[in-house]
Design goal:
Blueprint: E1 2-6, H1 11-27, E2 32-38, H2 42-45, E3 53-57, H3 59-62, H4 69-82, E4 86-92, H5 97-105, E5 107-117, H6 129-133, E6 136-138, H7 146-158, H8 184-187, E7 194-198, H9 210-222, E8 226-229, H10 234-245, E9 250-252, H11 258-266, E10 270-274, H12 277-284, E11 289-293, H13 298-301, E12 309-313, H14 320-335
Helix pairs in contact: 1-7, 1-12, 9-10, 9-14
Length: 358
């Protein structure tokens, strides 16, 4: 069986769709599963266990100059790559016009079907062409978690019972020296390891106050943990430096490619972060994790049913005491054997080498 998954963006949405790949492989271990995704997220998918081919597109960039020679050439190359195979099922997990276009362009094997969503789910976008293109439109429960939405759509599309257990299948490297991160200076003073603070988010209303991060970091330092501060922009770098200035043991990570950043997170003792794609990667890596919400939306995107992962919600924002209590709980659960446990481990790989992880 050959299956094409269409889920182009965004980072968190891509992560939430990864368990569906593992479900398919449990039912059909020999299935060939390909995935179309925006190029910026492809390095992460190249670490997703069970994927045969990651087909990269750049619709976001191409739309800015659709008539340029460079765009036309890139589009032709993408279309040729997309249509290299014929699929028994093309499954649109996004439900938007752009994903419907990709589904329509993909080639079907004899008897193959295009499958898409029949309805919008709460908190998710949905556009009518997604249903027009689909040969089979699947209705899912409107009030459902983003992970459940993708898993149920694939299960109904391919006719298998949804497995009771779940794995993201995100391959983590063997824990060897981190080539892109120098932690020797803080590791010596912090025997319990490093906790990463995912403080950056594209939405200002999802942020946690700067003094809250410092206060939490001070408690972690006093408990034998170093603090790592990832950053992916000039603004995030400035915030990371401001947090680090108030801490005895903290390191601001250099700006890393998505694959190298995932590898660095995998080495951490845990992660505390706001609702963002990077926090969702921490969940997929099965790390002890506390996810901070200023809105009551954790039911849709937060960690699911694992004692060593949880979300904390309050308005206007959760207090430091609440996040600290949650951290102590998830660390205790992890120490007791509740996790982490579900992450496949790859061979040792060079940092930033996505092809080696396939």
């Amino acid at each position: 069986m050959k299956v094409l998954i269409v889920k182009l963006s965004s980072l968190g949405d891509v992560v939430h769709a990864m368990p569906a790949v593992q479900d398919i492989r449990r039912t059909w271990p020999e299935a060939q599963i390909d995935w179309v995704v925006e190029r910026s997220f492809a390095p992460l998918l190249k670490r997703c266990d069970g994927l045969n081919r990651v087909i990269e597109c750049e619709l976001r960039r191409w739309r800015k100059s659709p008539l340029s020679g460079q765009t036309r050439q890139a589009w032709r190359a993408f279309k040729a790559e997309l249509q290299r195979e014929r699929y028994d099922a093309v499954i649109d997990l996004q439900g938007l016009s752009k994903s419907a276009l990709i589904s329509w362009l993909a080639r079907l094997a004899p008897g193959g079907k295009r499958v898409g969503l029949a309805n919008q789910t709460e908190g998710s976008s949905y556009e009518a062409p997604a249903r027009w293109v689909a040969d089979v439109a699947v209705r899912v429960e409107p009030h459902c978690h983003a992970v459940v939405r993708s898993r149920e759509l694939c299960a109904q599309a391919l006719g298998y019972a949804l497995p009771t257990s779940m794995s993201f299948g995100l391959l983590a490297p063997v824990p060897i020296a981190q080539a892109a991160i120098d932690t020797e200076a803080v590791d010596a003073a912090c025997p319990n390891g490093t906790v990463a603070f995912v403080h950056g988010t594209s939405r200002a209303d999802k942020q946690w106050p700067l003094d809250h991060w410092r206060s939490l970091g001070q408690r972690l330092n006093a408990s034998g943990y170093a603090v790592a501060l990832p950053q992916g922009s000039d603004a995030e770098q400035k915030t990371a430096q401001q947090i680090a200035q108030g801490l005895a043991h903290a390191v601001v990570w250099p700006r890393l490619a998505l694959d190298a950043l995932s590898d660095a997170l995998a080495m951490c003792a845990g992660v505390v972060g706001v609702d963002s794609g990077l926090s969702h990667i921490a969940v997929a890596l099965d790390l002890p994790h506390v996810q901070i919400y200023n809105f009551d939306t954790a039911w849709r995107t937060g960690p699911l049913d694992r004692a060593h992962q949880c979300s904390v919600f309050a308005q206007p924002t959760p207090a430091v005491d609440a996040v600290w209590a949650a951290w102590l709980a998830v660390r205790a659960a992890a120490s007791a054997g509740a996790g982490p446990a579900l992450v496949p481990v790859a061979r040792a790989i060079p940092m930033g080498d996505p092809e080696a992880a396939r």
